[in-house]
Amino acid sequence: MNRKKTTSQKSFQFNFKKSLFFFLFSIGRPFFLILLTVFLIGNFVSQILKKAFALGQKQIVVYPVRKPRLPATLALFKKVPLPVYFTLALLFFLAGFSYWIIYDLPSPHQLTERKQILSTKIYDRNGQLLYKIYRQQNRTLVTLQEIPTTVIQATISIEDAEFYSHHGFSLKGISRAALANLKDGKTEGGSTITQQLVKNTLLSPEKTFRRKVKEIVLAVLVERLFTKDEILQMYFNEVPYGGTAYGIEEAAQKYFAKSVRDLNLAESALLAGLPASPTRFSPFGAHPELAAERQAVVLRRMYQEGFIGKSEEEAALKQELVFAPNKNIIKAPHFVLWVKELLVERFGQRMVEEGGLEVITSLDLTFQQEAQKLVKQEVDKIASLNVSNGSALITVPTTGEVLAMVGSKNYFDETIDGKVNITLRERQPGSTIKVINYAVALDNGFLPSTIISDSPITYQLPFSEPYSPKNYDNRFHGSIPLRIALASSYNVPAVKVLAAFGVERMVELGQKMGISNWDNPSRFGLSLTLGGGEVKMVDLATVYGTLAGNGLKTELDPLLLVKNTDNKILYDCRKTLALRQEQVLDEKIAFMLTDILKDNWARTPAFGTNSLLKIDGHPNVAVKTGTTQNLRDNWAIGYTTDFLVAAWVGNNDNQPMSQIASGVTGASPIWHNITKTVLNQIPDQAFSVPSGIKKVSICSQTGTLPATTNETGCQTREEWFFEDSTIPVYRQAQPNNNSQPAKKQAFGNWAL
Question: Domain span at residue 78?
Fold first, then answer.
């Protein structure tokens, strides 16, 4: 399909043809002079030979012989002098040679128009670099103004001393390099900086005569199109310095862990010597002493070129260089790799690995490092209990920001499968999942004061063995209010509640609150409320974040801001917050569950008055523990109005732990210490009370209003009720278990 050429395209073609004509004219003048000289000499010799031949014919008698007549066309060619044939042949040869060189010559405009391969950088919320993502070339662009004079002078001295005087290639430089290589055995390139730029960006790495001629042709054209400073800036951003480090900025980071703008003379000289042979002269290579020798050569050349004095040269040689660790540093590796996965899903693999994105994440590196330390300390402390791994997560419930993600005790520990990110793996949640079950109950007529019987029961289920749930302490506790049943994490009441309202309702609400892998309710039974269905820690954090947000679910998002190389904003979390939020639970129910989980009195029967679930100075911290009955997973997860902390301990291979006490050892100490760190110097803040509920003084034992006369043994306490609730005044007969309670009607003394 024909397309009209734009003005810029026409301008590009005109400039390119003009520059190419200039080059051919520049290098063609000597050839035309040679051709003219050959033609004149040939013509002169031809005239002399003709005269000599004519004189010889006068002295020799020649008998006439009839010659065959040539066609008229061939006769014309016979009359053309021999020098003309020679000249035409040479012209055809030069034309063919020129076409062979330039027929697929790339345009020098590609230096500025092509898409450079740039590294994507991932930062924490405070601008601390976490990781660089790249495919083969790790590159960061800098301007010439950001590069110190010492780096520029060192590079020009060793690579191209005539840079500011030649027009693309230097015969003097090539000759000097050849002599130096023969004399001293030193590696000294003969290509100019412009030629090196062309070689690294526009041409293939093949070493052939044709590619070398192309290199010279393009170097001349580049010099015509760009200024010297523009060429030098492009060179510093393109040239390889060893490994995946491309460009001077990444070289400075790789070898000295600093920006190029902070390099001193000694460091500048070492880096300037690398492009000639990055592998051979690398301080991280097999012969690091060669790096020092090369640095000395660069400093000597700088002195010879007049850039530095003798004292500066000697001082730089004596300076001890401190190199960065020879490794690709990654901070918060589990978090970073999760972010990379999300970036690829959103922007594509090529953009992430070559597009030079700038990614500001929600991670707080200070929190991350403290959480990592606390996880390792606790896991090491309880290693004798057959605990090899731990994990933790810190989020902001109202925005979904992830402040810390500790995927394992040690990412680099192969013995525990440290690279596995537990926060993204499906594990059994134990009793932490009970909040969903009780949310269903509160949404269907139950109240925190509803009495539930913690007594033996056996369920005869079709196609299954009889199921008799047991409590963690192997005891039964009689009739207890829902508040204590949840806060003290008793199993039997939870199973009875699930049996009353059905697994399907719990699964449905779990999906709404953030559980992503509960796709088929038929997979689960009554043990679901005790942790029989696997969940991910990130999903569990979303569930509890929904409670912290008064029923408003907010999906987790570790990205704050993503920009491209043109500083254009590609993603802003503030603009997507509303899309990631959904009201999935009545705010009154969410508040009641939160009030139960922060009630130290209600959890005292199971955990005591001063357990690790209590944070001094912060009574408004809601928390829930969970331990699977096979002792493979141990959890603690809690939240305030502003922060959520989740912790887990166990083994990646699912080996059971031994003697893990929920709320005492394992996840609870990790949760407690991380929460203290997060809440340090932050005042306690109460959860806002939604409209539509009220607080009423009731009897603790019955969940009813005290009688007008004192009831025997009635201890009163305040409890939350819906405003439209009908609160019984005295003990009523126990209703039939099969009866369905009306929604939001008080059943203060109803026992399952």
Answer: 15-54+67-103
